[in-house]
Amino acid sequence: MPTVPLSPGQQVEQRPIAERRAVTGASADHFGAITGRQVERVGDALGITGALLASVAIVDRRKRMAEENALRAQQDADTVRRGEVAYETSASALLDDPEKGLLVTRRGVNAAGLSRDVEHELTRLRSDARVGLAPELAAKLDAKLDVSAELIRRRVRGYEAAETRKAQAESLSAKLQTSVNGAVANATDPQARAVYAAQGLTTLEVAAELHGWSPEVRANEIATFATSLHTKTIDALIAADETGATAQEYFDQHRDAMNGPARTIVEEKFDQLRRAQEAEQARREAEADRLVDRVERMSLSPFPVSAEIMAEAERQVRGTPAAVRLAELQQEIEERAVFARETPAEMLRRLDHAQKVFEDEGIDDLTDVEYVKRRAEIFKATVEMLRDDPIGYATGQDIAAETALDTRSPTALLAGLRARTPVINGLRATHGAAPKVLRPAEAAALAEQFNTSTPSQQAEFLRVMEAGIDDPELFRGTVGQLASGAPLVSFAGRLAAEESLNNEPLASTGSAAALVLEGAQLLNPPKDSGAKPYPLPKASDLRYELNDITGEAFADAPEAREQIRQGVDAVYAALSAQAGDYSAILDTERYRTAVDKVTGGIIDVNGRAIVKPYAMPESEFLRTLGAVDAFDVEMLGGVAGFSNAQAAEAIRDGELVNFGGGYAIRDGGRYLLRSDGEVFVWRPSATLARQWRRGER
């Protein structure tokens, strides 16, 4: 018979289950029994269900209790964690805040006592974290904080120890640096150096005892200090003594106290110093040689070398081989200075004499050849300067005071030119200087000013120059400085001088000098102006007209005639342009006007055409010519082969020819000569002066 499983309650009856189709013969009683048993079984089932429900309730209650316990545990853990986090956050800020943290503000010697202060703060933070906690939670929090606090203590103790060591090291380093600085500052005082070195060693001994240094550490610290002291002292000694001798001596004394790398560095410094000294000495010697060369070149100029220059040269070459050379050269320089003070004629005589000696006796000493060669250079430089810059020569030789030419006003320019004129005339007489009043730089500046002025301004400028120079040849030479290669400008200057005698208004369009300058610009316009030259009539027509007007006036003076021709062409161009005539057809009346303005007028005297004095009316000239007497001839040097009276008569009645600023007298095809063989020249001004002195006018 099968057995079914038992439930927690009643046990199922162990009997066969009737089949559904089974037909029984049960009675009502039997049915009631069956029903009762069925009801019993239902009750058993309900009992089982109730037991099951009770079990479920117990399980639910236990589950809720477990969840509540877990929640409380989590809440307690969170509370402890919050306290721990607050503690650690506050501790971190206490130590690491960038502005107020103890690890930032307590450095070096200030770190002493940091562990104590941090411990006090940690106790305070622990108390703050425990506020309001139950005893059991406070105990848990303490356990957590003990771990954090120990980590913080270790960190703070390490920091405090490191900062203390650092402060001690810095203090030691500062004391040692003070000793080194003292020794360096007194590098040139051996006793003071020794005192500071001893102070540093004493400081190291105290530190070794205090910190318990091992022998190796002590020896290393002493070697480091000694190396620093000696290397810096050597640098100071080198700076104090460029030769490095004292520094080298000090190095030799203390070499063994320095470590190997430092010795190598110092030895390299001395090598560099020696190389620099050798280079500097070579430079000084080369510069000294160049200086002596300059002094020698100066001695070959027209000017003596000044005592100041010689003294400065001696100072600069001292201690070099060039000093010997300069000393040997000094006597020769003094002799050259004596030679340079001579006139060119005297120099030339000496050179000719030396050359003659060479030719007669032969050359057996190259020193003599060099001697003559150097003096020939002085002669050449002197001649060139007298040609190009006679005023510079005069000032350099102390013949005249050095003065700058003031061109800001006509009055100042006039005064400057007048002061220079006698100087140049004196040099012309003694040294053969060129007739130039302007220095090259002055001439260049005035030429630029002159070339940018109007023709009337240029004419006025030339008049001022003529009034200041008052010497025809010197004036022409000076004007040539202003307009080299422009003969018309020089010619205009001469006209300005002539017009000044008549007080002609040079600024007016009627000024001959201004017209020449204006015509010169028309005939030769600047290349960069783009203008075309003024169209003159045919050259053959102009020559014919000039010959017809001047006749034989320039028969014996072709150069003067050419100057007159150029001047007349320029004035004709200016007059034609003013009249608006660009036809290139010759206007004979205008051309005659140009001739009169340039020449001052062509007149006929004793059947011959001459150019009268520019500033003198024809009637005045004829009256002056008729008044020539024997005294005038005598004052002008007399005439060879004639008495003064005969010569005066020949002047009054003979053929006058324009010549050298006056008039030569031709008699029978020959010119009258003075007793010295030169052509006799009559100047109306001499006769006029005599008449004014005698009251004849």
Short description:
This protein has 697 residues and is mostly helical. The chain has helices at 28-96, 102-105, 114-130, 135-185, 190-211, 215-240, 245-254, 260-299, 307-317, 321-340, 344-361, 366-388, 390-396, 410-431, 440-451, 455-469, 472-482, 487-501, 512-523, 539-550, 558-578, 588-599, 618-626, 630-635, 644-653, 684-694; strands spanning 602-605, 608-611, 655-659, 662-667, 670-671, 681-682.
Written description of the protein model:
The chain is mostly helical. The protein is built from 26 helices and six strands. Helix 5 (about 190-210) runs antiparallel to helix 6. The longest helix is centred in the N-terminal third of the chain and has 69 residues, at about 30-95. The radius of gyration is 64 Å and the shape is elongated.
Descriptive terms for the model:
697 residues; mainly alpha; four-stranded antiparallel beta sheet; two-stranded antiparallel ribbon; 26 helices; 6 strands; 3% strand
